[in-house]
């Protein structure tokens, strides 16, 4: 049986990126990401619950994250889960599940996080908003013949 380990998250950074270097000089950057979960409680009211994730990036992606990202900035992360465990200085065993990022897409603008302005994420990656299929007559008419599933 095949295994799949893939995570896609979109949220806001909870802290400024932390860039470090491994002993052999490879860059590694850690990010904190908050992703809100929205659900209805027993009373029928909408409740938002934040989920917090630790993200790890490597190499050039790590350097770019450190250079261009800051607390509050919206990002999209595509990666995989990684479990690690260690023994703390006091002798207790610790463990953690992290997201090892294959790619981090910067959303919004650099100034939006600092000013609190609304953030527009724009078109999905690879789409030009001026020429996307969303504006085509077939999409407006509700033509389902092009749906691939």
Describe what this molecule looks like in 3D.
The structure is a single chain. The protein has a domain at 7-110: Nucleic acid-binding proteins (OB fold (Dihydrolipoamide Acetyltransferase, E2P), Beta Barrel), CATH 2.40.50. A 5-stranded mixed beta barrel has the order 1-3-4-6-5. The protein has helices spanning 59-68, 110-115, 137-141; strands spanning 7-13, 18-21, 27-40, 46-58, 74-87, 93-106. By secondary structure, it is mainly beta. Residues 117-143 have low confidence and may be disordered. The protein is globular, with a radius of gyration of 19 Å. It contains 3 helices and 6 strands. 13% of the residues are buried.
Describe the global form.
Answer: globular
CATH class descriptor name of the domain at 7-110: Mainly Beta
Number of helices: 3
Largest sheet: 5 strands, mixed, barrel
Q: How many angstroms does the end-to-end distance come to?
A: 24 Å
Could you please say which CATH topology of the domain at 7-110 applies here? OB fold (Dihydrolipoamide Acetyltransferase, E2P)
From N to C, what is the helix and strand string? EEEEHEEHH
Helix percent band: 10-25%
Rounded to an integer, what's the Rg over CA atoms?
19 Å
CATH architecture of the domain at 7-110: Beta Barrel
Unreliably modeled segments: 117-143
Please report which band the strand proportion falls in: under 5%, 5-15%, 15-25%, 25-35%, 35-45% or over 45%.
35-45%
Number of strands: 6
Output the CATH homologous superfamily of the domain at 7-110. Answer: Nucleic acid-binding proteins
Structural class: mainly beta
């Amino acid at each position: 049986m095949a295994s799949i380990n893939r995570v896609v998250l979109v949220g806001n950074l909870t802290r400024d990126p932390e860039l470090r270097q491994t002993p052999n000089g490879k860059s590694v950057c850690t990010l904190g990401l908050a992703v809100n979960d929205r659900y209805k409680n027993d009373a029928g009211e909408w409740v938002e619950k934040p989920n917090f994730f630790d993200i790890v990036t490597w190499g050039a992606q790590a350097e770019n994250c450190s250079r261009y990202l800051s607390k509050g900035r919206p990002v999209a992360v595509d990666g995989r889960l990684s479990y690690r465990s260690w023994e703390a200085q006091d002798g207790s065993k610790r463990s953690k599940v992290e997201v090892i990022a294959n790619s981090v897409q910067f959303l919004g603008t650099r100034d939006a996080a600092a000013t609190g302005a609304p953030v527009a994420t724009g078109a999905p990656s690879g789409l030009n908003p001026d020429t996307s299929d969303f504006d085509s007559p077939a999409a407006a008419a509700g033509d389902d013949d092009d749906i691939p599933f």
